[in-house]
């Protein structure tokens, strides 16, 4: 018999009459008073009589039996009782109104298995138990075989007593982060106290793993359970040993919850060192912050202090990658990332900073990317679009640091103010009559920069002219107080004004688009160079003069372009129905005046005895001993800004873009809505070059060509090349003669070329296919030894249904090695300076085990590039993570097995061999 009963009862209600056997349970509810339709103002705030303060709701799937004399109700089969914030579900529930007591237990089925064990909820707390007794007046209870969750942890106890403050006292308790009824591991304690959403305190405890007790334990236990809110707490350090630091305690400290927006993690490390010196120490501060709908970010600062020394490898340095390396005693590193939430009309402040000592990552970081990265860049910027105005501005700071050359490049500040393109007629409110000149528009940009670098420029000129003093290569000056003067001299300030005038866009002969334009750029500098010939030294001296100097350049341009289409139809009944070729030719012209004749922009070295004579003595020779012909040198070489223009230019450029597509029948379409689909054969095949009519020599620029395509939507191909039209002499220097004028005429010569091929394999790429190729099944007669008549049955028996991915790329760079010089003994340059292949991917061996890898091969040096293998194994409440770098300077491995919960993150075992302790 199955029935449903629900009751809402107060103690003052008349007792229910016994239900005759065989009749379904009635629905019992408090009868509403039809005479009282509104609230009685005289009874507002009056509590009901009796111990029960609110309505008791109860129901059962089978039946409800009432005992009027004993004031007891028994609910059978999937019973539930709801009283205020308390909710109880169980197989059998007994409600004793005389003692205000609820008891609940499971229900045994015909096999003797207990089902529908009690589940008790009191506010946010939930308990699973074998038997529950709860007094809804005193709010105290006794729970047998209890299981409850506190934060990320679970409490198992033989007997639990709950008081009116919701505190729990457990006997023979177990604390774990495993959510199974029989956990894989737990902390076993005879007594424990639980303060919900605050802490778990135990007496003496020990750790049990796989039902095997371990001697790991302590006299008491304390486990914070903050629930959903964050909590401050200690961070347990890690013990280890390193070759250069000795024994150490690392990453121990404290986590501070500053407020609801900021969290701060402060950790430190101490190293024992050796008998000669103290190992040193390190500190780290990591702060995360977030404001909803505004911004979020993270700041990490690390400092390391240790005595200067060496890591000693084997006596034979070639036999070990752990060779001798010098260490800097004091290093630091700063990481800062700040990302704003985009909002219309508001400013945007963003930051990405990676800066510090160039040696820090090589001495302290185990991150492969940071260890191998030679260049770090940083930027901090604020930008804003003024509301209701076509003006935007930005303030920025950029920095670049090279960990190999120790070069630092800093731009502070970087100010940009831009005015969007404005139609001149609309800007001044002039009436329009749809004339061609009414399309004229003006655009303006202002860029101010102050650049600093600790790299002093080389004291050489491109022509080989000897200089007085200095070196032929750039020098990097260490950033320290003693070098302040040369560093300050290296500051370079510039301001640029860019004016662009658009003269409109016009259609000619219905199919051609003409777009003319004029631009003017002006740069302001606070210094410039002066070249002076010193006859005694037979060299040139370069001096820097201070002041305000203006450099203005102007140019005019026009472009004419169109699109041509060619289509070849095969027929609608063919698999390939049509092929279309799109051809986009473009011709452009640009012109600018001759700026080489301006002495404020360019200068020949002059003789101080005769400043008006700028022609050098004919006896002057360059660094190779050959006679030197004086040329013009820029007075702003190496400075920021656009710099002065070159000689006169009247340049005609052309470009040709090609795209090929085909229309094929869509065999996967069964509805008829998309019977065909487009497939790209060539994404782009582009050609471009230019011809300068006013240039003195080499008027025809090299031809640039590029090809982009995809094969089967998986193989991406990118090929680019540069072709030269001019001859060259035996030394490889270009001659102003075309190649078709030589003895063996040809049109062009390939100077440089590059190719990039990438392919992505994915076992689940095509839906509905579990394997990528047919498989041979194992012989049924003997799955171990196989069929003797077919000894090769297992050759291709591979399980390709396992999800996996593989990304492979091949890159190559070709450079013309120059003319053959076999008799001179000069070694030619490599034709292929770079040819390398990189592979990466992932294999999901099981639902809980994953393997990822990355590797490569350099065909030029014939060496394997950085190879890394990482694996992850999910053990339910535990996990194993590991990485292995088999070769290279940072070869080693790292394996960690630990609890997945962040609450027990220090419960782990780690084994590693890295470049620090190998």
TrEMBL record:
One of its GO terms (cellular component) is transporter complex. Residues 200-726 form the LPS-assembly protein LptD central domain. It comes from the Bacteria. Residues 12-23 have a biased composition (Pro residues). Residues 1-41, 763-786 are annotated as: Disordered. It holds the Pfam family LptD_2. Residues 1-11 have a biased composition (Low complexity). Residues 763-775 have a biased composition (Polar residues). This is LPS-assembly protein LptD. The lineage of its organism: Bacteria, Pseudomonadati, Bacteroidota, Cytophagia, Cytophagales.
